């Protein structure tokens, strides 16, 4: 035994050879960690028993508890010896006598690590991974290789694909050919043992021959011959329940269809009849004299009545057939609408309400909003005062001078007429040579200018979106001051409140649909860089630097100084036709071709505050009164509806909208009625122009 204890492997573990011990080399990496006193004591005891090494080495190994490992031991060349040291110790201990692990039935794959079934995650924060058979720590190997080194090993080492890491020791293990074959068989779903045959012939443990002796000859139990008291009690309870009628015998199922006539039982004693809210089936109308095959002569329609019956809509006819006389019942033909009427009768029964619902006892008068009486909201126009006649075609537009003395109108007859409001006399007719789409009187009281939008004359050269031409001396004598040519037809012109800027709407796709002209400097500009749909109308804000642009589906509010979009109003209309801004600037109305007038409170929301559906046809124009709380709308039904629209200074109080008067006077021409409306600047009067070629004043 002394010779065995002096073996090279144990002495090298505690010796002073250049190859350092496993613990020293590993503790150099985990510097700052503390070892327990038991481990240091065991190391010192082992060094004394082996009797190898100098005092300096024993002093290095025999450390007191809590002493930190010195940083000078950094040699990583001890890992091969670390993997061999436990095996050497195990061989030395087993040589004197019989091998104590010869009959070991342990399932541990690696008997060097004796941690058992302890999860290895518990050792993640420690420098070791377990303990060997001698109780020494098994330290983790150094992991100084990065992904680049692993990739180089993968490319250079031909056995890299069969190298795996042992979690019990932390070392890399190369699989043998048998182990690789075992893994491949398990991946294919085969058995691990090569010699195992899963398709061996079955062995019958019992033969199929009938024998005279039983397999077991145990006598039967005594309880098999004695009646059960528990079952007797259960049976007695069931018999009592049947006698009392608690348990009913099972009846045979009826496989007939389970449908029934919903309205068959109308007897008061029936289930449906006893229901308080039951609704009886709708009854068919009893036949009269008209349904007879030979009705009396007074029930037979005349030729005029037959013609009128054929021209009526099916929903408007009193009878769905024409009574006819027949000489006998055999001559009556088959009824053509028999199947249709039977189907409608089935729909009546199917869609009829099954049950009455409680009706809320509410006075209908309470549901009507409390509005002031129209006579309390005067003044407003109530009757037609004057008719301005002179145009030979549609009068599409009109405009009133700021002082209210003159009226300008444009027509399809290619002329612009100036009227005196008080006398309805045409003071001047200016031929313009084209259809007049829009006229607008300059709002500045000291400037007497009228802007007229006329179709572009052929042969006029185009230079950009718009260019201006000064009027000649002869044209100035006729009243023409400035001519601005556009590349596309102009559909609307409107003035800024100060009278220097003029906005024009062109019938063209793209970003040049709206142009703003400055008359004092003879400049024109396009304020938009891209288009958001076909522009219908534009209007300047009366007090702030805003421009309202109405497209087909929305109204956009732009800040001209900041050059940004401020708000986007959604009128929920199919096609916006007209636009008007309240004199205070916080409310906007717009009309649409689907017979809607939408009121917007811009301080409240971008959605409509109120939608008025008073007209029966498309709206062509809307207008606010500059002084009175009035607004009007003109429609293709030939009427002008005047409404009271009071806007309060209190922001907590909503505007009051009350329709006060329906004004009629224009005759429908080509399915067109009123084309434009405008209020008098100082009086509660309203002007209207229509497709009948007239202008009318309502006062």
From TrEMBL:
Pfam families: BOP1NT (PF08145), WD40 (PF00400). Transmembrane segments: none annotated. It is found in: Nucleus, Nucleolus. WD repeats lie at residues 388-429, 612-642. Residues 1-89 are annotated as: Disordered. One of its GO terms (cellular component) is PeBoW complex. GO terms for biological process: maturation of LSU-rRNA from tricistronic rRNA transcript (SSU-rRNA, 5.8S rRNA, LSU-rRNA). Keywords: Nucleus, Repeat, Ribosome biogenesis, rRNA processing, WD repeat. Residues 36-53 have a biased composition (Acidic residues). InterPro entries: BOP1/Erb1, BOP1_N_dom, WD40/YVTN_repeat-like_dom_sf, WD40_repeat_CS, WD40_repeat_dom_sf, WD40_rpt. This is Ribosome biogenesis protein BOP1. It comes from Bos mutus.
């Amino acid at each position: 035994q002394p010779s065995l204890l002096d073996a090279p492997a144990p002495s090298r573990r505690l010796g002073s050879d250049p190859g350092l011990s496993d613990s020293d080399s590993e503790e150099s990496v985990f510097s700052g960690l503390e070892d327990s006193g038991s481990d240091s004591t065991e190391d010192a005891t082992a060094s004394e028993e082996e009797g190898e090494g100098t005092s300096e080495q024993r002093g290095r190994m025999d450390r007191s508890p809590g002493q930190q490992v010195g940083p000078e031991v950094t040699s990583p060349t001890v890992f091969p010896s670390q993997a061999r040291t436990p095996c050497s110790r195990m061989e030395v201990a087993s040589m004197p006598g019989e091998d104590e692990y010869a009959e070991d039935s342990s399932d541990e794959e690696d008997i060097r690590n004796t941690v058992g079934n302890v999860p290895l995650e518990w050792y993640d924060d420690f420098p070791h991974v377990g303990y060997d058979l001698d109780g020494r720590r098994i330290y983790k190997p150094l992991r100084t290789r990065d992904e680049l080194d692993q990739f180089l090993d993968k490319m250079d080492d031909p056995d890299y694909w069969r190298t795996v890491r042992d979690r019990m020791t932390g070392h890399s293990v190369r699989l043998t050919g048998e182990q690789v074959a075992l893994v491949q068989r398990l991946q294919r779903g085969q058995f691990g043992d090569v010699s195992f045959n899963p398709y061996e012939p079955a062995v019958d443990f019992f033969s199929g021959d009938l024998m005279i002796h039983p397999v077991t000859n145990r006598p039967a139990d005594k309880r098999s011959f004695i009646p059960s008291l528990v079952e007797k009690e259960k049976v007695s309870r069931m018999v009592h329940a049947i006698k009392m009628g608690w348990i009913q015998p099972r009846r045979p199922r009826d496989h007939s269809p389970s449908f029934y006539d919903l309205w068959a039982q109308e007897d008061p004693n029936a289930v449906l009849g006893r229901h308080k809210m039951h609704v009886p089936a709708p009854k068919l109308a009893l036949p009269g004299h008209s349904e007879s095959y030979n009705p009396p002569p007074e029930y037979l329609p005349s030729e005029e009545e037959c013609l009128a019956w054929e021209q009526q809509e099916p929903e408007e006819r009193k009878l769905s057939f024409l009574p006819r006389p027949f000489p006998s019942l055999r001559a009556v033909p088959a009824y053509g609408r028999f199947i249709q009427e039977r189907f409608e009768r089935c729909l009546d029964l199917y869609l009829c309400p099954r049950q009455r619902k409680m009706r809320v006892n509410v006075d209908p008068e309470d549901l009507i909003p409390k509005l002031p009486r129209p006579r309390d909201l005067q003044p407003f126009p109530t009757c037609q005062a004057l008719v301005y006649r002179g145009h030979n075609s549609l009068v599409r537009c009109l405009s009133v001078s700021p002082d209210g003395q003159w009226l300008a109108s444009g027509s399809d007859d290619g002329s612009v007429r100036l009227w005196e409001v008080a006398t309805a006399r045409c003071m001047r007719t200016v031929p313009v040579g084209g259809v007049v789409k829009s006229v607008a009187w300059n709002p500045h009281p000291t400037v007497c200018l009228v802007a007229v939008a006329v179709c572009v004359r052929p042969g006029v050269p185009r230079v950009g979106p718009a260019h201006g031409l000064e009027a000649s001396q002869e044209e100035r004598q006729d009243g023409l001051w400035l001519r601005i040519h556009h590349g596309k037809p102009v559909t609307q012109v409107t003035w800024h409140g100060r009278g220097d800027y003029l906005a024009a709407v062109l019938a063209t796709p793209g970003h040049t649909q709206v142009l703003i002209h400055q008359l004092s400097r003879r400049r024109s500009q396009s304020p938009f860089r891209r288009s958001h749909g076909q522009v219908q109308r534009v209007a300047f804000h009366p007090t702030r630097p805003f421009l309202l642009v109405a497209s087909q589906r929305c109204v956009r509010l732009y800040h001209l100084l900041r050059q940004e979009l401020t708000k986007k109003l959604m009128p929920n209309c199919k096609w916006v036709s007209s636009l008007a801004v309240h004199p205070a600037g916080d409310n906007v109305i717009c009309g649409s071709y689907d017979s809607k007038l939408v009121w917007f409170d811009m301080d409240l929301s971008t959605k409509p505050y109120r939608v008025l559906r008073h007209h029966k046809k498309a709206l062509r124009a809307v207008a606010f009164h500059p002084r009175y709380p009035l607004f009007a709308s003109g429609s293709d039904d030939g009427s002008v509806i005047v409404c009271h629209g009071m806007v309060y200074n209190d922001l907590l109080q909503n505007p009051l909208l009350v329709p006060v008067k329906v004004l009629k006077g224009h005759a429908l021409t080509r399915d067109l009625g009123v084309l434009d409306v405008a209020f008098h600047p100082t009086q509660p009067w309203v002007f209207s122009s229509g497709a009948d070629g007239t202008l009318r004043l309502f006062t």
